[in-house]
Automatic annotation (TrEMBL):
InterPro entries: Cyt_c-like_dom, Cyt_c-like_dom_sf, Cytochrome_c-type_DH. Pfam families: Cytochrom_C. Gene3D superfamilies: Cytochrome c-like domain. Keywords: Heme, Iron, Metal-binding. Residues 38-145, 186-292 form the Cytochrome c domain. One of its GO terms (molecular function) is metal ion binding. This is C-type cytochrome. It comes from Rubellimicrobium roseum. The keyword Methyltransferase does not apply. Residues 291-310 are annotated as: Disordered.
Length: 310
């Protein structure tokens, strides 16, 4: 019996050590970041494509001028409520972070302290972004107005508040490859980069499994809003039957072919896509028409059951 107990203790210790190693943060190697110099002017376009202001502006902030990324917006999900942090270039924000720390936060979901970030922050999409683009984005962030607002803690219950467990989530669900692997034109490839990486469109328009992983088999086919406020629409050709020109026009003006105006979170998206070049909006449209048509799937148990249209 003593030998059996000793063996069980040793086995548990070994298993715990392996689990600890497997769930460790995986930052970008320093060699890949060496020599990167960001360009703030180029970074402004990356900032718009990535939609940073949509989440990190303070609630109800509609002031003109350069955005103040003070944070504070709340995002309600089945796992808890996540609060966007201050990412302005102040000591309360990210002003004291190095460029490498910022890039690792954006692309790998790793904090300067070596903790995992929740995938409510879409590093799961930004992990496909070009490192030069991220360096340019960081350079632009440093030009924006600082805010002294303190970042508020997330309201996440046990067991989801165990940060280390996110390492296991990453092992199961993080995907650093593009979803659409078809033979694409250069324009469609640019659109894929804007949609799947910088624009992180799949985060809202793709259904999730009960643990919050994206169901890439139903890519962009629509998903319940995490807060339970209706349904984010299907934007594959099975659901979005607009022409490329109509998609481009909506991304620039917010007007749909039905002479309606997009609202809610999509209005925030249009504020960003309207700042892109004509070529980039056209590339997004070309990609969306190249995505395989998928009928909107029924929600999986535990992922929400709202079916109201956006």
């Amino acid at each position: 019996m003593r030998r059996a107990l000793t063996a069980l203790v040793l086995l548990a210790a070994v298993g715990g050590g392996v689990a600890w190693w497997l769930t460790a943060p995986d930052p970008i190697p320093e060699s890949e970041l060496a020599g990167l110099t960001g360009d703030a002017t180029r970074g402004q376009a990356v900032f718009a494509a990535a939609g940073c202001a949509s989440c990190h502006l303070a609630p109800e902030d509609e002031s003109a001028g350069p955005p103040v990324l003070a944070g504070g917006q709340r995002f309600v999900t089945q796992f808890g409520t996540f609060v966007a942090p201050n990412i302005s270039p102040s000591p309360q924000g990210v002003g004291n972070w190095t460029d490498a720390q910022l890039i690792n936060a954006i692309a790998r979901g790793v904090s300067p302290e070596g903790q995992h970030y929740y995938p409510a922050f879409p590093w799961t999409a930004y992990n496909k972004a070009d490192l030069q683009d991220l360096a340019d984005l960081v350079a632009h962030l440093r030009t924006l107005p600082p805010s002294e607002a303190e970042s508020l803690p997330h309201e996440v219950p046990f067991p989801f508040n165990i940060r280390r467990s996110l390492g296991g989530w990453k092992l199961l669900f993080e995907n650093r490859d593009f979803v659409l692997q078809a033979d694409l034109t250069p324009e469609q490839e640019r659109g894929r980069y804007l949609v799947e990486a910088l624009g992180h469109c799949g985060e809202c328009h793709t259904p999730r499994n009960p643990l919050g992983g994206l169901r890439t088999d139903a890519w962009l086919s629509g998903a319940p809003d995490p807060a339970g406020d209706g349904q984010n629409p299907n934007i594959t050709p099975a659901g979005l039957q607009w022409s490329e020109g109509e998609i481009v026009a909506m991304l620039q003006s917010g007007f749909t072919p039905e002479f309606d105006v997009v609202g809610g979170e999509m209005a925030e998206v249009v504020r960003n896509t309207s700042q892109l070049s004509d070529a980039d909006r056209q590339a997004i449209a070309a990609y969306l028409k190249a995505v395989p048509p998928i009928e909107s799937p029924a929600p999986e148990p535990g992922t929400g059951d709202s079916t109201a249209e956006e």
